Amino acid sequence: MNTGRKNFVATWGIGFGLLAIAVGVAIFASGLWASWASAILAMIAAIWIGAAWMGSVDEAAQEAHKWSWYWGGSIGMAIGGVLLILATTPASQHWTVPVAPGHEGDPVAYAATGAMGMLGLMLVGYLVAWGLWWLRRR
Amino acid sequence: MNNRLKVLRAERDWSQADLAHQLGVSRQTINALETGRYDPSLPLAFKIAAVFDQPIESIFSA
Description:
The structure holds two protein chains of two kinds. Chain A is an all-alpha fold. Chain A contains four helices and no strands. Chain A has helices spanning 3-28, 32-56, 59-87, 107-135. In chain A, helix 1 (3-28) packs antiparallel against helix 2 and helix 3 (59-87) packs antiparallel against helix 4 (107-135). Chain A is flat. Chain B is built from five helices and two strands; from the N terminus they run E-H-H-H-H-H-E. The mean pLDDT of chain B is 95. The interface between A and B is medium-sized, with 10 and 14 residues.
């Protein structure tokens, strides 16, 4: 196996190995420490895999992702920002905020809904921008 | 920025995939370069010049 292939296997192997450990901890361990460990390991694995994947695509593809994350993500965040600002005003008095079943009334669940909503908007913006970037270069 | 990528590639009877393989980029990137909708980085421009065995300034122009 040549050095490039070894590096490739090692890089992806470490990423997915970390992810497997995170999933394993989540399934087989219990308690607060296990939740923290699993979540932190999963995010380290995600960053690791993301970095490996970003390094494996060519420069135009990298540029597409950077541009899309900046513009799509920013516009998505701006839309989320409107909702966030409105949430602090009387306009939100009659809003119904969805939360995970069984967590109604739990402030943490509402915060999680807000975070997931913002992330969702940013991801939608990112995907739209990514599609536009490549459409304009066909 | 304008470039002569398509002409140079056609002269050698290479497909976009052939050139992409030699440069280590995707075919989509070659298409974006040829249509002038994506400007390459300096390292990629040097690589293109090396593949066609021509100076950069004879391939790219402002």
